[in-house]
Amino acid sequence: MNDQNTNPLKKYYRQPQLYIKLPSKGEWWPEGSLSKTVTNEYAVFAMTARDELALKTPDALLNGQSTVDVIQSCVPNIKNAWHTPICDIDHILIAIRLATYGEGMDFVSICPHCKHKNEHTLNLQLLLDKFTDLPSWNKTIQINDLLISLKPESYKTFNNKSIKTFEEQRVLQMINQDGLTEVEKLDKFKELFKNLLKLTVEQVAGNINYIKLDANTVVDNEVFINEYFQNCDRLVWNTVNDAITEIKSKTPTNNMDLTCEECKKEYKTPLTFEMSNFFG
After folding, report:
1. pTM here?
2. Are the CB atoms for 97 and 279 separated by under 8 Å?
3. Are the CB atoms for 164 and 196 separated by under 8 Å?
4. Which is nearest to 268 in space by CA: 86, 72, 113, 49?
5. Which residues on adjacent β-strands are paired with residue 19?
6. What pLDDT digit, counting tens, does each position of 66-107 carry?
7. Would you say 17 and 45 are in contact if contact means Cβ atoms under 8 Å apart?
8. Which terminus has fewer CB within 10 Å in the chain: N or C?
């Protein structure tokens, strides 16, 4: 007889559909957030019905909780997806969609030349393979006496900044719609502009691993680093920002080469993951 404590249906549970190697190679993950493997290969399962329902909950989508829950469900080695380095996020989400729905994904792009709406079918397996050659975040920048070490920000940091950006955009819409005087609108715009500048600086500071002053002084305190970038000169800011932008621009989803079916001209477009329809 079967052990009454053992579910006889267990052997019919979902099985791994594919294995992926993380672009980060397991680096930048805080201890306990990822159960690492010797080969850097991680099993990816298809989504459950519960996962699909989670992606239809507006509040959970907005605050990122749905994304975190689905990643942890489909990639069991990931114990805390909030700590996922941002360089791994797209790779993981594409793998989950591939495991759940198969290789093909339809999407629409607008040609910048003639404004024609083009329909495409993307091969996710081919796209996934391109993530094997991402540039490393193990980069240091020497600026005068400072040695600045870069890192990919975590999904939690990225998501928090996305929420702040969304909130600022909503404030902007409210300013344009409310019955405010011109003076009141100007004050609101000044406050909004100040907040957006602060957010821009925080985005760069979030990609700093540490700043080394000399052999005995290394600063890795996030508050201190953020404060420094609020007050550094433009040479430091531009040099660091350009290095971060260059690394991020190499992500395959940022530069998709397409050809318009109407005017036949080539153009580039980013593949944007809207969680509400990416897994639909």
Report:
1. 0.85
2. yes
3. no
4. 113
5. 43
6. 899 999 999 999 999 999 999 999 999 999 999 999 999 888
7. yes
8. N
